[in-house]
Amino acid sequence: MGRVIRILVLALAAVIVGPLAAAQAQRIPVVRDAEIETSIHKMLTPIFRAAGLNPEAVSIFLVNDDDANAFVAGGQNIFVNSGLILQTRSAGELMAVLAHETGHIAGGHLVRGAEQMERNRLIATIGSLLGAAAGAASGRGDAGMAGVLTAQDMARQNMVNFTRGIESSADQAGLRFLAQAGIPADGMLSFLKRMQDAELARPSGSEYARTHPLTNDRIEAVQEAVEKSPLRGRPMPPGYDDMFARMRAKLFGFTEPLSVARVYPPSDTGIPAQYARAIAAYRNNVFADALGRTDALIKAEPRNPYYLELRGQILLETGRLAEARPYYERALALLPGEPLLLIPLAQTKIDRGSDAELRSAIRDLERASVEPEKTPPIVWRLLGTAYGKVGDMGRAALALAEDNLARGDRRNARAQVDRALQLLPRGSPGWRRAQDLQREAEDKPG
Questions:
Q1: Phi-psi region for residue 129, left (φ > 0), alpha (ψ -120 to 50) or beta?
Q2: Number of Cβ atoms within 10 Å of the Cβ of 222
Q3: What is the rounded distance in angstroms from the CA atom of residue 341 to the CA atom of residue 312?
Q4: What's 184's DSSP letter?
Q5: What is the spatial distance between Cα 420 and Cα 426, in angstroms, rounded to a whole number?
Q6: How far apart are CA 116 and CA 157, in angstroms?
Q7: Which one of 93, 213, 333, 410 counts the least CB within 10 Å of its CB?
Q8: How much is the pLDDT for 58?
Q9: What is the pLDDT of residue 445?
Q10: Which DSSP category does 27 fall into?
Q11: Residue 185 covered by a domain
Q12: Where are the alpha helices (DSSP H) in 61-140?
């Protein structure tokens, strides 16, 4: 149950400090990718609506983890492991797993899980006290230890029973949401069966089974619902299979570049295969080949912002910042205001160093940080650099305080907050934000 408890701890922390900061504190390797986040969100939007959720209020985060898993934390934040996308075999399987996670959100399972943890803690504490008292009264320490272990076992079993219950509830909710969205639920059954096979094949079980306990009753209930569904065997909504194939190819290219030739043999001339090969060439440091393959993708789909972003990224990370800039600008023209495109564009401007370019970069980065709880720490570091270069040391200190706090360095965050409070005009928005950060930085020693 350790992984379940860790997720519940993350869930509570994310409410307080934001999902990215909470994930970083829990050493969960969140990575940001505009294409994958946008594609998953678009595919899930009908499911969110069926669940009675505002799609704009639900955020998707990608976790660089090989395990086939997903979880909810901090209210309406869905964390999707890269391994889940790579190991699911269809858009239907991925949507079924994430419909299940949506069931956790709609059912308020995070709050109920936190309450159950607190009840279990009280059971274990009371059991320990009673055990100690019994041991003292009888003069036998083994009697007291037996009472402690019994209480701990009871608390553990309560948590197991609770977790199994909410997993079954989330299955049923997910099936209902899929049906209302017109999406076949076949993928839920095929995925659960494969996870059960993996659990039987390995004594330790699959990661999904450890965090989403599988039972025959669960699988039989899903099978019955799928067999009775009028949507059984129907194709996915238009575009879903293509989005899934592209995000999967992208992840193979970035996370398993040496496997790309095996997964996408030369006979596969489809766009996803070409995409995977271009990214794999970049990850393998064959930059000329990567640029050539990316150019071919851009020629095939000139209005695809993610191909333009990829070419910009290759140029940026090989030190060709001036050449990278127009590709980010073209991508932003197709995806106005996308924070994950504004950030690298700002990097190219900071490199130029002129006052006008620095102030333009600051505007880009401020637009990219309108939601501080979702802002990658690199934004604050770049803002600190840009503000410092234009001589605005108060705002530079404030940005560096944000950066240190996001990375969990509370000691340096407090130092930068103190500096910002001294330099910023009293009562200004920046000064008030520094006061908020001061309170956050003082919550825990560090």
A1: alpha
A2: 23
A3: 10
A4: -
A5: 10
A6: 12
A7: 333
A8: 94
A9: 47
A10: T
A11: yes
A12: 82-87, 91-106, 109-138
pLDDT at 341: 97
SS3 68: coil
The domain tally of the chain equals 1
Its sign, for the CA torsion 277, 281, 287, 289, is negative
**C-alpha to C-alpha distance for 430 and 369, rounded to whole angstroms:** 14
With CA atoms as reference, report the closest residue to 21 among 411, 439, 402, 339. 402
pLDDT attached to residue 205:
57
In the sheet that 30-31 helps form, which strands lie side by side, from edge to edge? 30-31, 59-63, 77-81, 70-73
User: Roughly how many angstroms between the first and final C-alpha of the chain, as a whole number?
Assistant: 28
Q: Output the pLDDT for position 78.
A: 93
Distance (Å, whole) CA 141 – CA 157: 25
139 domain-assigned:
yes
Q: Kindly give the parts of the chain with pLDDT less than 70.
A: 1-27, 109-165, 202-214, 443-446
Evaluate if pTM is beyond 0.85: no
- The answer to whether 105 and 72 are in contact (CB under 8 A) is yes
Task: Tell me which amino acid residue 122 is.
Answer: L
Helices (H), 318-424: 321-334, 339-352, 355-368, 377-389, 393-406, 410-423
Cβ contacts of 194 within 8 Å, gap of 6 or more: none
Q: For residue 327, is it within any domain?
A: no
Rounded alpha-carbon distances, angstroms, from residue 319 to 253, 260, 308, 346:
21, 26, 17, 14
- Domain contains 342: no
Helix ranges (DSSP H) in 139-270:
141-181, 186-201, 207-211, 216-228, 240-255, 260-263
Instruction: Please give the residue range of the domain that contains residue 74.
Output: 2-228
pLDDT at 196: 83
Q: In this structure, which amino acid lies at residue 30?
A: V
Between CA 38 and CA 389 the distance in angstroms is 34
Whether 277 contacts 264, CB under 8 Å: yes
